[in-house]
Specification:
The chain has 325 residues and is mainly alpha-helical. The protein has helices at 10-37, 63-78, 82-108, 116-135, 157-175, 181-199, 203-223, 232-249, 253-259, 261-280, 291-297, 302-324, and strands spanning 142-145, 149-152. A hairpin with a 3-residue loop joins strand 1 and strand 2 (149-152). The chain is globular, with a radius of gyration of 19 Å.
């Protein structure tokens, strides 16, 4: 019998969540020790809030563990379904770009890996590859626009999908600046796509989404304040890509912009800050960007920022489900 063939829909979802969560949570402390011994330790930006300097030296690149947990759990729960392989391939590819960035930071001994243009070029090539693949699959080039109905973008879907992959890969990366923030928000967002996939009977996507939920929730064992292991660019880039893939395979791209609203707000704060700074000759909109640093410098503790952003993520999740209802 193939995995989950005769089981109720919730069985592979539960299996994926438990397998990923259990694996990552149990292996987290050992992974932190191993990565630290290997010299993979966090470098802190000089312009980061002062209290962030105490995070220097924390083991990083924990995203490798997250990626492994998601892949193993999704394949165990639902087998090598094409939709799962699409999501895992996107996750691994963007995670690989992040891994290169992390390794270069370690070798150079400072918080500078790939240059922005180098990273964006690699991401663009990868994103277009996955976009062209999606555009060529039956039914995947159709976008459901709320209150307007389905629109078939045809070959143009490749560009649209590429923008999703690049946008959310970088948005999650920008959000990963406080202990537990990105991991918890990804878990919340992936839970939304698990519900969407289950309601639409896309069982393979539901299993993949629950594997993401389990792995990111399990990672909080070592990533919640005070973090003993940081996911690094390998983790944040991979998780942003897998969220984009989940939106594509469930055909709920519009919902991604709502469910991932906190990620978009974080990315938008950086864009607006830079644009306003250049246009006004040095004036700022926020105390510091990304947005979570603005609230930190406003007097909120790190745990308060994370907790309130979780609430915002939960609200975005509920609104996103209404978009596809």
């Amino acid at each position: 019998m193939s995995p989950g063939a005769a089981s109720p829909p919730w069985v592979p979802m539960l299996m994926a969540a438990l397998a990923a969560g259990g694996t990552v949570a149990l292996a987290g402390p050992s992974a932190a020790a191993a990565l630290g011994a290997w010299g993979q330790r966090q470098r802190i930006r000089e312009d980061a809030p002062a209290r962030h300097q105490q995070k220097a030296g924390t083991p990083t690149m924990g995203g490798v563990l997250i990626i492994g947990g998601i892949a193993a759990a999704a394949l165990l729960a639902a087998g090598p379904h094409p939709l799962i392989l699409f999501g895992l391939a996107a996750m691994a590819t963007f995670g690989g770009i992040g891994l290169l960035d992390d390794v270069l930071k370690t070798r150079r001994g400072r918080n500078l890996g790939l240059r922005a243009r180098e990273r964006l070029l690699l991401q663009a090539v990868a994103a277009m590859g996955f976009g062209w693949y999606a555009a060529g699959r039956p039914g995947l080039s159709v976008v459901a626009v709320p209150w307007m109905g389905p629109i078939d973008l045809g070959a143009g879907y490749a560009v649209f999908a590429a923008l999703l992959f690049m946008g959310f890969s970088n948005a999650v990366n920008l959000t990963d600046g406080l202990d537990g923030l990105a991991a918890g928000l990804v878990a919340i967002a992936a839970l939304g796509f698990a519900a969407i996939a289950a309601a639409g009977a896309v069982r393979s996507a539901a299993a993949l989404a629950m594997a993401v939920v389990g792995a990111t929730a399990g990672f909080l064992r070592v990533n919640a304040f005070p973090a003993r292991l940081i996911m690094g660019d390998v983790g944040s880039n991979a998780l942003g890509a897998v969220l984009a893939a989940l939106a594509i395979v469930t055909k709920t791209e519009a919902a991604l912009f709502v469910i991932g609203g906190v990620f978009l707000a974080e990315a938008a704060s950086v864009f607006l800050q830079v644009a306003y700074f250049k246009a006004t000759g040095g004036r700022r909109i926020f105390r510091m960007s990304p947005l979570h640093h603005h609230f930190e410098l406003g007097g909120w503790s790190e745990t308060t920022v994370v907790r309130r952003f979780y609430w915002a993520g939960g609200l975005c999740l509920l609104l996103g489900l209404l978009v596809v209802a």
